[in-house]
Amino acid sequence: MTPSDTAATGAASPVAVSVVVPTFNESGNVVELVRRIRAATVGMTAEIIFVDDSTDETPAVIAAIPDDGRVPVRLLHRVEPTGGLGGAVIAGMRAAAHDWVQVMDGDLQHPPEMIPVMAAAAGTGLADIVIASRYRGEGEAAGLSSPIRHLVSQASTLLTRAMFPSRMRDCTDPMTGFFLVHRPRVAIDRLQPRGFKILLEILVRQPHRMRVLEEPFSFGRRFAGESKASVTQGVRFLRQLMALRFGRASAFAVIGVIGALANLAIVWLLTSLGMEYLIAAAIAAEVTIIANFILQEHFVFHDLLHGASHWRVRFAKSVIFNNVEAAVRIPVLYVMVTLWGIAAVPATAVTLALAFVVRFTYHSRVIYAPGRTPAAGTVPVGDEDDDDSDLPVIRRHRSASDEA
Ligand SMILES: Nc1nc2c(ncn2[C@@H]2O[C@H](COP(=O)(O)OP(=O)(O)OP(=O)(O)O)[C@@H](O)[C@H]2O)c(=O)[nH]1
Ligand SMILES: [Mg+2]
């Protein structure tokens, strides 16, 4: 829904906004940004909060911006930044003087002229969050720096919307960092910032579905300075998505299923190349055991690596366990089918289910045994529910931060 769909409400007066701008080395942009925000918000109540993690002269440049007697500029320079860009946004939300928090980038890719448009949409009272979307109506993403980034942006948008059909029902651009949110509707303590995609956290980790309005906008090019987007950010995003959508056990299961399919594909490939079946099966088993290990390190247990043993020890334990497990499961299956007379398919299903439980327990309790030196702020991934069932379900779990 866009506010124009709700024209019956008439012209709403804009809400007062705290503009939160996370900055990392944006010294060439901040003066121009403040000038344009001030120009765009004439007649509105607004403040600007820079949450800065820079290693360059950005904080000094911000501090030197003269007061205009109307839109105050505040600087929150974080000497020990936590949570990257997402952590900065949360710090800004907490510090905001007004209930409506406008989050935007500091490089002028997000046009400040959208602020009054979004503030008026918020003024209708129809939304908990107003999102500036590159993919709705007249919106466009021309400022993405390469065709690959276009593709990545569109693919991740598609994936995210497919994974959260209910929460994303009215949101065409879950990847955007340009939105105006009503802070009283956000349970800030539930957010677990892990990098760039804070909007996703805000939409998914609430006990209720946020009411969304969208305004199309044109994503511009950087005014000055360098991008901080990277492949690492991409991997973080995938982790975040897995953590939000699946619990740890389900993510582990998803990787197990992918491994089983890969196993079949490798056996098929090798045997069709003329290799003997048993050798092909052995190679496929070892390849998938190694691949599964890498995937589970990245997507299932990554938050527990800090307190766990060295990766070589983890790798050895995982490979040995999986080989022993396969060596035990096959004879058990044999006994069940030939001696006990159970049909092959249910017997296989039972052994696989049992193996899954044992494997997951072993990995979480032994290989990635948490709690020896819990890293501050780490929390079990994925234990929150997404209520795509539309039934708000809140489950609280103990976490390292709960215990701190
Ligand atoms: N406080 C803080 N801000 C950050 C951090 N990383 C990025 N930012 C800011 O977040 C905003 C978005 O980062 P960009 O590098 O512009 O990312 P992007 O817009 O996806 O990439 P480009 O399209 O190449 O500009 C900018 O204002 C950055 O300065 C961080 O670790 N801490
Ligand atoms: Mg940018």
Entry keywords:
12 helices, disordered C terminus, 404 residues, 7 strands, seven-stranded mixed β-sheet, binds magnesium ion, alpha/beta, binds guanosine-5'-triphosphate
C-alpha geometry:
elongated
- Classify the fold: give the CATH topology of the largest domain: Spore Coat Polysaccharide Biosynthesis Protein SpsA, Chain A
Q: How many beta strands in the DSSP annotation?
A: 7
What Rg do the Cα atoms give?
25 Å
Largest sheet: 7 strands, mixed
Report the β-strand fraction as a percent range.
5-15%
Number of helices in the DSSP assignment = 12
* End-to-end CA span: 42 Å
CATH superfamily of the largest domain: Spore Coat Polysaccharide Biosynthesis Protein SpsA, Chain A
Instruction: Classify the helix fraction into a percent range.
Output: 40-55%
Bound molecules: guanosine-5'-triphosphate, magnesium ion
Structural class assignment: alpha/beta
Name of the CATH class of the largest domain: Alpha Beta
Q: If classified by CATH, what would the architecture of the largest domain be? A: Alpha-Beta Complex
Q: Write out the strand line-up for the largest beta sheet, numbering strands in chain order.
A: 3-2-1-4-6-5-7
Q: Ranges with pLDDT <50 over ≥5 residues?
A: 371-404
The SSE string, one letter per element, is EHEHEHEHEHEHEHHHHHH
